[in-house]
Design a protein that fits this description.
single chain, 334 residues, alpha+beta, 60s Ribosomal Protein L30, Chain: A, Phosphoribosyl-aminoimidazole Synthetase, Chain A, domain 2, 8-stranded mixed sheet, 4-stranded mixed sheet, 9 helices, 29% helix, globular
Length: 334
């Protein structure tokens, strides 16, 4: 009879079991490691991401299935930002003993809901479980490592932007942060009819868009917006050794609710709010006209231009300029 960790692993593998095809020659199961078989002419993409109780999700407020969905979506977004396709993932999971040993017969429990959300995300993103590790801890700690692939030489990096390139973003920025603020203020949650709340709880990494940009060689550089525009754009500029000029009036900001929006600033949310997992990409001026206004229903908006100056400035709606300081998510900010 399996008990303790062996029983926990069995539940995880059973919930997430899937055939990986030829790419994943040996997945999660009896062995301690997986065997991968990358296709000729492709490069592997590796990324990992922490998802921690209290820091990245709110215990008691965030549904367990959204924790499962989001912990994978966050890491997959890094694959999208390089124009790649996710293939498999490793799951490292630390749980309190009472959570790890809950049984289905006792009703709907956190672990079952978490695995259900993770399974839906894995199916949605075409990314199968290849293995991982488990341990016991007082709070829930999740680490996800994703392995993806991209056609050799087609990966879009942060370091390719040139002065004169146009800056584009997908979607609406700041919605996830608005959803988080709503979640903190509300006892009852209903993400079905709330766009901002749904975006915070169940983000959709822009895989198809990233692959489309890579396949057509349209983007000179790209980054996913996980920590906020004001923090992530300077990272791209630093990697490319350039600066940027943004137009505040062009930045797609969230529509604030008519009631209960006191204290919210739409532009501030768009600049500094994290967890959007939209794509920010640059395009040579000669190719900018080839970027459509939308891609598969997702708006694509030109918001500025890459410059020679090694700083990021924003032209405000009154025409004045100010330096854009990084005020997005930073776990080490005091």
């Amino acid at each position: 009879m399996k008990v303790g960790e062996d029983k926990l692993i069995e539940r995880i593998v059973k919930a997430l079991a899937s055939k990986g095809g030829a790419w994943l020659a040996l997945g999660a199961g009896d062995d301690d490691a997986a065997l991968l078989g990358p296709r000729p002419g492709y490069q592997a993409i590796l990324t990992c991401d922490w998802f921690l109780e209290g820091s990245h999700f709110l215990p008691g407020k965030q549904p367990a299935d959204s924790v499962g969905w989001k912990c994978l979506a966050r890491a997959v977004s890094d694959i999208a930002a390089m124009g790649g396709q996710p293939r498999c993932f490793l799951l490292s999971l630390a749980l309190p003993g009472k959570v790890a040993l809950e049984e289905k017969r006792r009703g709907s429990r956190w672990l079952d809901e978490f695995l259900g959300g993770l399974r839906r995300a894995a199916q949605r993103f075409g990314c199968v479980l290849a293995g991982g590790d488990t341990t016991q801890r007082g709070e829930i700690l999740i680490n996800v490592t994703v392995v993806g692939e991209v056609v050799a030489g087609r990966a879009i990096r942060r370091s390719g932007a040139k002065a004169g390139d146009r800056i584009f973003v997908s979607g609406t920025l700041g919605e996830a942060e608005l959803g988080l603020q709503k979640l903190r203020r509300s006892i009852r949650i209903s993400p079905t009819n709330d766009r901002a709340l749904r975006k915070h709880l169940y983000p959709e990494p822009r895989l198809a868009l990233g692959q489309w940009l890579a396949s057509r060689k349209l983007a000179s550089s790209m980054i996913d917006l996980s920590d906020g525009l004001s923090s992530d754009l300077p990272r791209l500029c630093a990697a490319s050794r350039v600066g940027a000029r943004l137009e505040a009036a062009l930045i797609p900001s969230p529509k604030l609710p008519r009631t209960g929006s006191k204290g919210f600033d739409a532009l501030g949310l768009a600049l500094n709010g994290g967890d959007d997992y939209e794509l920010l990409f640059t395009v040579n001026a000669n190719k900018a006209s080839r970027i459509p206004r939308s891609f598969q229903g997702i708006a694509l908006t030109e918001i500025g231009e890459i410059t020679h100056e090694r700083r990021v400035v924003m032209v405000q709606q009154d025409g004045t300029k100010r330096e854009l300081l990084p005020r997005g998510w930073d776990p080490f900010r005091k």
